[in-house]
Amino acid sequence: KMLKFILLLLVVPLFALNIPKKLTSSLESGPQRILINFKNPVDLKAYAKNNGFKWDDMEENARGKLVVKLLKDRAAETQSKFLMELQKKNVQYDQLWISNAIAVERAEKSFVLDLHNHPEVSSVELVEEYQLLPKDTVAVPPKKKQTVEAGVQWVKAPEVWDKGFEGEGITIGVIDTGALMHDDLKATYRGNQDGFSHADSWLDGTNLRRSVPYDDNGHGTHCHGTITASSTAEILGVAPKSKWVSCKFLTARGGGNYNDATRCLQFMLAPNGNSNIRPHVVSNSYGGGVPQAALELALDALAAAGVEMVFAAGNSGSRCSSVLLPALYPQAMSVGSLNRNANTISFFSSRGPGRNGGLKPEISAPGSGVVSTSHRGGYVSSDGTSMACPHVA
User: Fold this and answer.
1) pTM above 0.90, yes or no
2) CA distance 231 to 217
3) Per residue in 101-117, pLDDT tens?
4) Which residues, in sequence order, are bridge partners of residue 372?
5) 176 catalytic, yes or no?
6) Nearest Cα to Cα of residue 92 among 111, 77, 75, 110
7) What pLDDT digit, counting tens, does each position of 131-172 carry?
8) Computed over its alpha carbons, how large is the radius of gyration of the chain?
C-alpha cells in the first residue's frame, strides 16, 4: 500500500502539468516541436494599475524599454535554471521572453515527460502548422506611369496627402511571407536608410533564417505594396513616405505555426533587441487554427508598448461569428473586406460578432480586386481580407 501511495505521488504532477493527449500520441511517431509555457507571466495591465500610471501616458522610448525590461526580467527569473539544462543537453530552442515561454524544435518523448519535474513550467503545447488565408491572384499589365490604385483612392489617402500627411516619420511592420525588394518598395525599406541595417528591419522567422528580405510566396510583398509603395515608383501605397520593416514566418506554401508568429511579434516589440526602433503599427494578414496562449500574451505586450496591431478578419464569410483568431482577440483591430469601388461587404469576408457579442470586425476596407506589388517583380490583383488589412495599417 505504501508503495502504491508513493507511485501515486510521483505521477500526480504529470497530470497536473496537463500534457495534451495529442502531444503524447504525436511523440510516439518521433520528436515534436513544442512550446513550454512558464508560470506567472507578467500582467502588464495590473503592473501599471498597481504602480499608479497608464501606459499611454508614458514617453514613447521609456514605455517600450520598461515593457521589455519587465518581460525579460520575468523570463530570466523563471527560466534561467531550465535554460542551463537545455544548453547542457544541446537542445535547440528559442526563448520567447515576450510570453515567458520557450520553443523547443525537436522534443523527445522522454524530455516532455520529464517536464513535470520542473515546478516553474505551467504547460506544454504541441506546435501545429496552419494555412494562410486563401487568396486568388491575377497578373496585371506592367505600369508605365505612377498610379493611385482604386483601394488607395477609396480610403481617401490622396486627400490626406494633400494636407501634408504621407506617412513621414512612421514605421509600419508586416508579419507575413516576407517581402521582395521590389522597385516600388526599395526606397521605403528601413534597412536601406542611413543608420539602419537589415538586422534592425528584417527577421526570417522560418527555419531558413535568411539575413536579407525575400518572399517565396508573394502574399507579403502584395501587402507591403498597399501600405508603403514609394511615391517615386509606379504604384502608390496608402502611406508612401512611411518606412517598412518585415518579419517572415509563413512558408512558400503559406503554412506556418504560432511559435514562429510569436517570434515575429517579439521582433516587432524590439527589433534587433532595441525597443526604441519598434514600428508604430503592425499589419497581420494571417489567421486560423488554434493559436497558443503565448500569442495573446505577446499581443498584450505590444499593446502596452503602444504598437497598434491590425489583423485580417478572415475569409470565412458570410456566416455569422466567422472571424478567425488572432483577429478575434480584443487586442487586435480586425479588418473586413469591401467590394471594389463599393461600400458593400465582400461575400468572402468573415462576419461578427466577436466573443461575448463584441464588435468584430471593427472596420472594413477594400479587399476585392486589389492591385499591388508582386514577388515576381510586376503587379498582381488579389482578393481577401488579407488585402483589406494593409489599407487600414
Assistant:
1) yes
2) 25
3) 999 999 999 999 899 88
4) 380
5) yes
6) 111
7) 765 655 666 776 767 788 889 999 999 999 999 999 999 999
8) 22
